[in-house]
Write a structure and sequence with these properties.
mainly alpha; 4 helices; about 90 residues; about 60% helix; about 0% strand
Length: about 90
């Protein structure tokens, strides 16, 4: 079985004993779900003006991804602000 670099680093970390078991897994799952809900909550509106060409391209890309174009815009902004998206 072949592993990519990220998987290899994870395996090495586990083998070095850098991971600890969670005593209350269900509690941690619920805590993580709540953090995700709070982080991803869309509770504000934003109006912007963009070129017709860019909007058309956004809508095409969203169709390819199978999501609404507003969701795609939101994901792009979130990724950019999370420093996981490079321009």
């Amino acid at each position: 079985m072949k592993f990519d670099d990220e998987e290899k680093k994870l395996i090495e970390s586990i083998e070095k004993g850098e991971w600890e078991s969670i005593t209350n897994l269900q509690k941690e799952i619920e805590k993580s779900k709540q953090i995700a809900k709070t982080t991803l909550r869309k509770d504000q509106r934003m109006n912007i003006r963009i070129s017709k060409k860019d909007l058309s391209a956004l809508k095409i890309r969203a169709i390819e991804e199978g999501i609404p174009y507003q969701t795609l815009v939101s994901r792009i902004i979130h990724k950019y602000l999370s420093e996981t998206f490079e321009i």
